[in-house]
Structure formats: C-alpha cells, structure tokens
Amino acid sequence: MFNHHRGLWGYTGTAGDGEPLTIQATGMGGPSAAIVLSELIALGAKRAIRVGTCGALAAGLKLGGLVIAREALCADGTSRALGAGERASADAGLADALAQHAPTALQGAVVSVDLFYGGDPHEGAGDALAVEMEAATLFAIGANTGVPVACMLVVSDTFETTEAHPLTRQRIDDHVLVESAEKMGRAAIAALGG
Prior knowledge:
five-stranded mixed barrel, globular, 5 helices, two-stranded antiparallel ribbon, alpha/beta, about 190 residues, Rossmann fold
C-alpha cells in the first residue's frame, strides 16, 4: 500500500509478468475519478482499466453479470467539461483484450451519470446496457491524453418497476460481489499484460 490520500487506497508493485502494476481506488463519480486518473498519468501510467460496479438497464442482465463498456453515453457533467460529446469511447485494443480474457462478458454502451440515487436510471439511457458514474470521464481523459483506457463492470444493482413501487433496487450479495471483483481483476491484469 503506497497511498491513502483522500481516503482512496492505492497499491503498487510488480505483476506476475514482471511489469509494474498499480491498483488505485478512484472514489465515486467523474470529478474524483478525473483527479485520480490525471495524477496517475502524471506519475507515468501508460494504460488504465476501470474495474467497478454498475446498475443493469438491459433486459437479462443479472446481479453478478459482467459488462465491458465499449463506449459511454455522456450524461454526466465531468466528461462534458473535459470536451466529450454525446459519447466517449474506450480504447478498442484494450477493450478487445478484456473481451479475450472475459469471454462471457456482455459488451456495449453504458451511460455515465452524476447521481447514484434519484430519478429513473432508464431515462435518457438510450442503448446503454448499464448505468454507472465514471466511464465517460475516464474515456474522455484517455482520449485527451492518448492513454488507452478501458472499463469492465459487474452488475451490482438491478431495477424493477411495479405499480406498487415506481422503482425498486435489488443489490448484489457481498459474496458474489467479491467473486466477481476477483474475476474482473484477473481479466484486467491479463488484458494489461497483453
């Protein structure tokens, strides 16, 4: 452990292939993620993969399912402040490497938003498979700096609408979350090494 500034823990060392590897929490939302990725790039980061959580929007996505974000709809303020348009794209080569090491993951667009609670997550989501809070910002920084950035997510929340309850959120079990995080971590490390 080399860092815990702002309460964001960071670890660095040597990966199994002998290359340097840093694992750094970014906090929640685009503003925090933008600071962390910008500082990592200033320190010499050459590639980055976000490993995180998302809420399912696509029918059939279940708790614990994996998603590789190929692009993000920019429904957040930070990516727009960084010059992103309607959508920001992941680095295709790094996303392909993730897909190679996580062949069961669903691939497509996600929507990046500013609010975790409030409103209908489906509203304005277009063709997004899932909703999350950081990918658009990280993709925009990657595009602006020439640093390849990709994103892999586990479905941690699903949403159901009924007459009795306009929006009900179901959360992932801690055990399933840990298992999924380990799968994503292994895929991300393998993708970075490729």
